[in-house]
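Morning run. Coffee first, then this:
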Amino acid sequence: MSDSTTEFSKDIITRWPFSDRATAIEANAIREILKISGRSGIINFAGGLPAAELFPETHLKAASEMVFKKHGPKALQYSLTQGIYELREILAERSSTPEMKFSADTIQITTGSQQALDLIGRAFLNPGDYVLTEAPTYLGALSAFNFYQARYCTVPMDEHGMIVEMAEEKIKECKPKLIYVVPNFQNPSGITMSAERREALVEVAARYQIPIIDDNPYGELRYSGEPAPSLKTLGGNAVISLGTFSKIISPGIRIGWVAACREVAAMIEKVKQSTDLHSTTFCQYLVYEYIMAGHLDSHIELIKEAYRKRRDVMINTMANEFPEEVKFTRPEGGLFLWITLPEGISASEVFDKAVDAGVACVPGKPFYPHNDNDQSFRVNFCHASEDNIVEGIRRLASVLRTELS
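And here it is:
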């Protein structure tokens, strides 16, 4: 390599101009926190990871062998952008209710539900468009929509979810292009939107002709309480639903889906073509064969029982160890709960001290589109063992007691 080539390589970042969109992107806060929380000796409640020891490795291996036996080269070939028909048909059947029927042509397979969020951004958002969200809301959605230079109008939450009666004023003020919600066991708060609020949200969205994005990665992970009707059931074609196998099989498979009316599904398919042509054919057949073997529902029941126990251990330990001024949610399902600190206590500062004490969770500030709340934490109760949950919460409680003394 010549000296001139070496000199050019050193200077590549300043001489090759990246796009304005790319340079405006900030690093994902959770990914940066995970670099810290991965240190030896730290009990990690920070990530959105399911429990790796519960992955169905044996059954997935058998399903993989069945893919080669039944589908052979077809599973290794290019496939339809919309996704293999067999898997779309199963997803349509699983998603259908007596009130709302799906068909295979209303399902778009995606590379995880994160890609679904990106595709929706591509399909709907121009620079400067508003998205109406809960506050707090899912950080991954903000990351996806930020790339398309979205702006946000936010509606606060209480124990029943988004306070929908406050949404109409925001809609009149900002004229949002989309309404984005996580109604079941919300990431980050763990809160589930009540049936009454769901009906109200569908009504106001219909009145102003705004599509609702119903992000539902945790809907099948209910451990207590009674389910509310889905937004899709209530809102029909006015609602675009997102799902994923990341939390109920494995995130490494990277298979998610969009359920929408045919016209929207066709638009999502069109924008996906320019992204990756199609999601991995092999993994689509892998999921299909795994489901056809009858393993999915029994596996969901297995992880629900394990996660229910871990949730209860975390809640009970918090109730026993936390100062009474510290509040936390009691989710009926999902992976997360939300800790709220008293006025005047910074979650970002507590995070640094908690890491020093050997426990990591995620400060809540990045989950607010305007970064205007530094009083909360998100914790994952599914990834750690029950013993580590007890020890980690005790460490966190000790830090909190010191901060409040």
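The mean pLDDT is 93. Good start to the day.
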